[in-house]
Q: What sequence folds into this?
């Protein structure tokens, strides 16, 4: 089964989440047969990060290098020693949004003397970006809470399912601007 | 802001949006006109800068959203296939009849 379109995939996930057994089976097949999806989405993250780094640093090579190093450090701090592919993806999401939050905050700082229209626009951007950033952090915390490796030990009888990622290989880690 | 030609003479007027103010002619009028032109250029430059920033933000934001949304969907997909669900964007919970153990 080939990877469905973005809309179809989202609908399938929603339907499976709502308890439709057929959708759940189909979703499992889609993920099993398309391990490349992790790399594809990782690539999207790489593009987004490069776009943001270019925007923030402009032509300043030193600034660019500093930002890349900062993101690498942040990614390392958030990931821990042996992150699962799921955690890596969640961390990449946070790091990308962290950079976007910084960028919008920089715009905000530079607009103190600008007109109210511009200030309103920047405040709207700050709201949007902060909301996404907070959701991304919450998502990583959820993954850690549900992941057997990091959650409290449970009785075997409770049968907590493993958060194993279908077909995701270590070398399928998302590419990013930091090259990690 | 404009010059009005009357006969052989030009007279400068400055508008504040509600009414026009007569500034006459000669050196003072030339100076006022030059100041107004400089302010206008500054405003146009600021407006162009804002537009550039807006466009740059939107281009980067599109790339970010594309990634962030897909990553969220894939994370959700992984959790759902692992036997979890969530109601109306609430907390993730384990489905009662979820398959357990190895999901492969």
A:
């Amino acid at each position: 089964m080939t990877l469905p379109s973005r809309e179809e995939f989202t609908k399938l996930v929603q339907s499976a989440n709502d308890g439709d057994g057929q959708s759940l089976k189909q979703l499992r097949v889609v993920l099993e047969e398309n391990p490349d999806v992790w790399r594809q989405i990782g690539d999207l993250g790489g593009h987004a990060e490069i776009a943001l780094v270019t925007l923030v640093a402009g032509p300043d090579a030193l600034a660019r290098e500093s930002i890349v190093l900062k993101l690498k450090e942040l990614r390392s701090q958030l990931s821990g020693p042996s992150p699962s592919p799921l955690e890596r993806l969640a961390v990449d999401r946070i790091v990308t949004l962290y950079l976007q939050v910084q960028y919008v905050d920089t715009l905000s700082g530079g607009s103190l003397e600008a007109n109210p229209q511009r200030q309103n626009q920047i405040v709207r951007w700050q709201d949007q970006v902060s909301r996404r950033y907070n959701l991304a952090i919450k998502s990583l915390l959820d993954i850690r809470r549900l992941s057997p490796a990091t959650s409290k030990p449970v009785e075997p009888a409770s049968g907590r399912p493993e958060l194993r990622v279908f077909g995701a290989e270590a070398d399928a880690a998302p590419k990013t601007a930091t090259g990690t | 802001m404009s010059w009005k030609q009357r006969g052989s003479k030009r007279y400068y007027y400055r508008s504040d949006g509600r009414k026009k103010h007569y500034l006459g002619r000669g050196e003072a009028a030339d100076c006022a006109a030059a100041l107004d032109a400089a302010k206008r250029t500054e405003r146009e430059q600021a407006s162009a800068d804002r537009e550039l920033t807006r466009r740059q933000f939107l281009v980067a934001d599109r790339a970010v959203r594309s990634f962030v949304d897909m990553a969220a969907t894939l994370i959700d997909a992984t959790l759902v296939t692992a036997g979890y669900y969530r109601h109306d964007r609430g907390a993730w919970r384990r489905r009662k009849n979820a398959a357990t153990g190895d999901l492969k």
